[in-house]
Amino acid sequence: MDEHTLDANAVAGMLHEVFGAEMTDHASECAHCGNRAQVGTFRVYDMHGPGVVLRCSICAEIVIRLVRRPDGSYLVDASGVYLKSG
Questions:
Q1: How far is CA 1 from CA 14, 44, 46, 70, in A?
Q2: CB pairs under 8 A, 24+ apart, for 39-42?
Q3: In this structure, what are the phi and psi dihedrals at residue 81, rounded to the nearest 5 degrees?
Q4: How open is the CA angle 76-52-83, to the nearest 5 degrees?
């Protein structure tokens, strides 16, 4: 991690808005490398662009993309992560 990245706690509010629950302590598995960790450990990039990119803290592959549309709804791509239930 460098001065241009943050952990996913920086977008905790956005994740809650999208998923309807506190997500930073939610268990996950990276679809690319199999890293099992809490969502809060993901690295956040592009905080000032039209969307937010979250990457695995181990392999740096994209796990979640979030884009807020002008109407307030979100476009979500979480194809890089398996979110664990319970």
A1: 21, 10, 14, 31
A2: 39/8, 39/15, 39/81, 39/83, 40/7, 40/8, 40/9, 40/12, 41/7, 41/8, 42/7, 42/8
A3: -145, 145
A4: 50
pLDDT digits (tens, 9 = 90+) for 10-32: 999 999 999 999 999 999 999 99
Asked if residue 64 has pLDDT above 90, the reply is: yes
pLDDT of residue 79: 97
Q: Are 7 and 63 in contact (CB under 8 A)?
A: no
CA–CA distance, 72 with 25 (Å, rounded to integer): 25
Mention every residue, 6+ apart, whose C-beta is less than 8 A from residue 80.
Answer: 30, 31, 32, 56, 61, 62, 63, 64
What pLDDT was estimated at residue 86? Answer: 59
